[in-house]
Write a structure and sequence with these properties.
Gyrase A, domain 2; 15 strands; 49% helix; 4 domains; five-stranded parallel β-sheet; four-stranded antiparallel β-sheet; RNA-binding; Rossmann fold; alpha/beta
Length: 585
RNA sequence: GGCCCCAUAGCUCAGUUGGAUAGAGCACGCGCCUUCUAAGCGCGGGGUCGCAGGUUCGAAUCCUGCUGGGGUCGCCA
């Protein structure tokens, strides 16, 4: 339950009453009426812009309409004061009980607190990672993996039905190169001296294992065969081995992808041909010659007729080729078929999480999605900017040639899965991110992972302590939900409750914006509120959670503490991080 | 040259889809441990939201044009 949305409904009800009473005209557009918590705490608990939005429609001034609204709002039982302020805001202050009951709401809901129904069962498809099966996942893949996975969790919490997909690019020339590279390692495994890996092939050591495994399985049967015989075998064998490793790495990171789609299978099924015919039927295919890119003409440019998709009809900058000169489909053509396939499987909201180098790909894919689904599906693309790996403030040098690139596995082994997941959400996806091995494992307030975990651990610590000192007390969620919450009267306590009451609203906003990083920032704010209250108890012993001579007050505060732990756990679950019971290692 | 992203405190970044006097953290200065974990908390200084216009009750946020940084640019995926 979102208290802000809830109150907005009450407000709209009052507006209806005012219409009925003839105070307002019929047919008002209330779409832009908002109820939100003001930035400035002194402005109260909630604030509405209704007077400013409606004044124009009514034909009066905001400051004139606002007092009428304030009068009505002030008469509501839960509203303490309703004041007109600024250009026409109505600021509301609620009775403390309005907030206190939220603690019980949290405890009754448990970690499901914050769940929403705005998704209304709508089906969303999120494609993420989708790294080429030509090598192990490296550190940069972690970001897309976490961003996609957390977004999936978030949307599920908001009531959407979510599919998590990985598109395996197992068609095209790159996997052929992989097959040839693996063949070299295969011969090496059989004792041949292969020398330097030729340019154009993948030099990575990870292929040695692939070569050995194949030699073990098949012996020397491919040695004297022509490439046309062994290439498909080697290619498929290598893809399978590498995908196995990728799946393991994803599992280690806790990434919950449940559908792996093969590009090659898609092409083989005729889906690309079908998609092509669909576009043709819509009159969006033609033979034409593209202009060379302005200002930067490739050396080998020559104008030639191509099979083009009219992407410009849907907002792209140029029309895009669907066939290579050898007649086979371009990657783009295959991807159109894949997105159509998602739509045909019942998804109308499509999200692709892609790397920074795919920025130029967004417009054409959105154009194609709109075109081929007749506007019935929308594609949102989340571009993840680069991750700069650092250590002690200095960049970690990486070179594919020298083999010193850092794998995802390396990073997880070094700092742990929870740290990777949390840190990847401490920036908006379109902002570059520094990942400093020293900083992210530091146990200090500079490290948001630690800071949030410490908050949860402190809550648990208090509850453990309470259980030890009062063995008779029942401290289950159900019992604490019945605690005498009216004993929570301190401003810091009520402030903390207000933050918690904002969690459902945050979930809905973040889900609608497809922005999971907001959860990480929210948890930081919540933790700050708790740490502040904790330390108040150091200066003033009457503020401590455990009041030795007041069992009732203690129970109320334990309910508050348990609620904080619950909301933190609820948020961490979206990020995919395990809340810890204590920080001692 | 076209397109996309970014530009907010000295530094790293948020900013509730257009709201009020723009917020955190780091760094800097001062204060707080006989205590449920000081691995933390409080107070203070610090801003032309890159620049210039426009839209309206109201702009860091939306539109246009510039400046600077990154990415990308027909048959790689």
């Amino acid at each position: 339950m979102n208290v802000f949305k809830d109150f907005r409904k009450r407000l709209l009800g009052l507006l209806d009453e005012m219409v009925a009473a003839g105070e307002l005209p019929v047919g008002l557009d209330t779409a832009r009426v908002t109820v939100e918590s003001p930035r400035e705490a002194s402005h109260g608990d909630m604030s509405t812009n209704a007077a400013m939005v409606l004044a124009g429609q009514v034909g009066t001034a905001p400051r004139q309409l606002a007092p009428q609204l304030a009068l009505r709002l002030g008469a509501l039982p839960e509203v303490l004061t309703a004041e007109v302020a600024g250009p026409g805001f109505v600021n509301l202050r609620f009775a403390p009980d309005f907030w206190r009951v939220q603690v019980a709401e949290v405890l009754r809901a448990g970690t499901a607190y914050g769940a929403s129904t705005i998704g209304a069962g709508q089906r969303v498809n999120i494609e993420y990672v989708s790294a080429n099966p030509t090598g192990p996942l490296h550190a940069a893949h972690a970001r897309g993996a976490v961003v996609g996975d957390a977004l999936a969790n978030l949307l599920e919490k908001a009531g959407f039905i979510v599919a998590r997909e990985y598109y395996i690019n197992d068609a095209g020339s790159q996997v052929e190169t992989l097959g040839r590279s693996a063949y070299l390692r295969y011969r090496e495994a059989l004792g041949e001296e292969i020398g330097e890996i030729p340019a154009g092939l993948y030099p990575g050591d990870y292929l040695k294992e692939v070569g050995r495994a194949l030699a073990e399985r098949d012996g020397g049967r491919w040695l004297d065969q022509p490439e046309s015989t062994w290439l498909p075998v080697l290619r498929d064998f290598a893809i399978d081995r590498i995908m196995l490793g990728i799946r393991e790495d994803l599992a280690t990171l806790g990434i919950g992808i449940n559908v792996f789609s093969s590009e090659r299978a898609l092409v083989a099924s005729g889906a690309v041909q079908a998609a092509f015919e669909e576009l043709s039927a819509r009159g969006l295919i033609y033979q034409g010659v593209l202009d060379p890119p302005k200002g930067k003409k490739p050396d080998d440019w020559e104008p030639r007729p191509q099979t083009l998709f009219r992407a410009t009809d849907y907002g792209d900058d140029v029309d895009r080729p669907l066939r290579k000169s050898d007649g086979s489909w371009t990657y783009f053509a295959n991807d159109i078929a894949y997105h159509l396939d998602k739509f045909r499987r019942g998804f109308t909201v499509l999200i692709d999480v892609l790397g920074a180098d795919h920025g130029g790909y967004v417009k054409r894919m959105q154009a194609a999605t709109t075109a081929i689904t007749g506007g019935k599906a929308a594609l949102d693309v989340k571009i993840c900017q680069l991750v700069h790996l650092m250590d002690q403030g200095k960049p970690v040098k990486m070179s594919k040639r020298a083999g010193t690139f850092v794998t995802l596995r390396d990073v997880i082994d070094e700092v742990g899965r929870d740290v990777v997941r949390f840190i990847m959400l401490t920036r908006r996806n379109d902002q570059t991110l520094d990942f400093d091995f020293a900083k992210v494992t530091e146990q200090s307030k500079d490290n948001p992972v630690f800071y949030v975990q410490y908050c949860h651990a402190r809550c648990r610590s208090v509850l453990r302590h309470a259980a030890e000192t009062r063995p008779a007390a029942v401290l289950t969620l159900e019992a604490l939900a019945e605690a005498p919450l009216h004993r929570l009267v301190e401003p810091e306590e009520l402030a903390l409750i207000r933050i918690m009451a904002g969690w459902p609203r945050l979930v809905e906003g973040a889900a609608e914006a497809h922005e999971a990083h907001r959860v990480a920032f929210y948890l930081y704010d919540l933790a700050a509120g708790f740490h502040a209250l904790w330390n108040k108890g150091k200066d003033d012993t009457t503020l401590r959670f455990l009041a030795p001579d007041d069992a009732e007050l203690t129970l109320a505060r334990l309910a508050l503490v348990q609620a904080v732990a619950t909301v933190v756990a609820s948020g961490l679950a979206v990020i995919g991080v395990e809340p810890v019971e204590e920080m001692r290692s």
